[in-house]
Amino acid sequence: MVDEQGEVLRAKWDWQEYWRLLFKKITVSDIRDFEKSYKDSKELVDIKSAYVDFEGDMDRIMESVLYVDYADEHRVRNIIQRAIDAGELLPYKAFVKESKQKMSARKRWVGISQRPKGSSVHDELVISLSGS
Known about the structure:
Structural class: mainly alpha
Strand content: under 5%
Number of helices: 8
Distance between the termini: 40 Å
Helix content: 55-70%
Order of helices and strands: HHHHHHHH
């Protein structure tokens, strides 16, 4: 392999070492700190944006917003409803007339009732990534 100056690069280039020179290692603590700073700040903008992008489809909204777990659905619905009431968002039919069946199917699909109280999908992911 040859670089821009035509010099031969060493055969065993340590890309991981090079990457670490450029970027710090992300820890579980970093992820949790970002989640805390994101919730109730940029999250509000992202929820409203997802609502508009997906025309009120809660399935797609819940899948697309960072750190949102299906246990957060009530909170997310309240954020959207307050924005509709304030005239910030249009009341899409998919949101205001969502059937109980669709809500129940979403809840069953994620298996929320099987998850320990207080835990989230993100907690499970962090645990699996950290090897704990």
